[in-house]
UniProtKB/TrEMBL annotation:
Superkingdom, natural source: Archaea
GO molecular function, one term: kinase activity
Binding partners and assembly: Interacts with uS11. Not a structural component of 40S pre-ribosomes, but transiently interacts with them by binding to uS11.
Record protein name field: Putative adenylate kinase
Annotated catalysed reactions: AMP + ATP = 2 ADP; ATP + H2O = ADP + phosphate + H(+)
Species of origin: Methanosarcina baikalica
Entry keyword set: ATP-binding, Kinase, Nucleotide-binding, Ribosome biogenesis, rRNA processing, Transferase
Binding of ATP, residues: 10, 12-15, 105, 143
Annotated InterPro entries: Adenyl_kinase_AK6, P-loop_NTPase
Length: 182
């Protein structure tokens, strides 16, 4: 089963998926690393210092990787995961906390503002609703990486056992950070 782990940069996709890779031995595809390593991009946007992902190439490459694996759970970790996986978990972080995390990471003021604005406006959530069959949301604000990992484990384990009715706490809709748009 392919599960996408998406979210605005800094919400914790990489940190939490690394933890789960070790703890649960789930296969995790760190898509942004794969894009860089295998040049799965059309061009480099110099102004934004970012690679422009080639979604067609990415889908082809992922199909090859996934078809060769018999893992029960494959986590696709990337802010692009909701364009690819049908089942999606979105990590959220309230704008003031996200700002701190991105500051610690040395992001420019412009990049911080762009990201916290996107988070406050639910940009990824809206995109996920458009593209995915099933969407879960975890608010990581005030949580540790371990606690966020436990939330993901709960979602995945309940999907695997067919007990999704017990996942109502992760249904999107309770987050409202519109007043926190910078
Ligand atoms: N509850 C939490 N869950 C995840 N990360 C957290 C949490 N609390 C604090 N953090 C911190 O937030 C930062 C998240 O960075 P990380 O690279 O994992 O995010 P990301 O979503 O993968 O970003 P990117 O899309 O740029 O790769 C890390 O420094 C991590 O230690």
């Amino acid at each position: 089963m392919l599960i996408g782990l998406t979210g605005t940069p800094g919400t914790g996709k990489t940190s939490v998926s690394r933890l789960l890779e070790k703890k649960r031995h789930w296969k995790v595809i760190h898509l942004n690393d794969l894009i860089k390593e295998e040049h799965l991009y059309t061009e480099i946007d110099e102004k934004r210092d970012a690679a422009v992902a080639d979604m067609e190439l990415i889908r082809e490459r992922l199909a090859e990787i996934i078809n060769g694996k018999d893992n029960k759970v494959i986590i696709l970790e990337s802010h692009l995961a909701h364009y690819i996986a049908d089942i999606i978990i979105i990590l959220r972080a309230c704008p003031p906390e996200l700002k701190m995390r991105l500051k610690t990471r040395g992001y420019s003021e412009e990049k911080i503002r762009e990201n916290i604005e996107a988070e406050a406006l639910d940009v990824i959530l809206v995109e996920a609703f458009e593209w995915c069959k099933k969407v879960f949301e975890i608010d990581t604000t005030g949580k540790s990486i371990e606690e966020t990992g436990q939330d993901i484990e709960k979602i995945v384990d309940h999907i695997l056992s067919g007990n999704e009715e017990e996942l109502s706490e992760y249904e999107p809709g309770s987050i409202d950070w519109i007043d926190l748009v910078p």
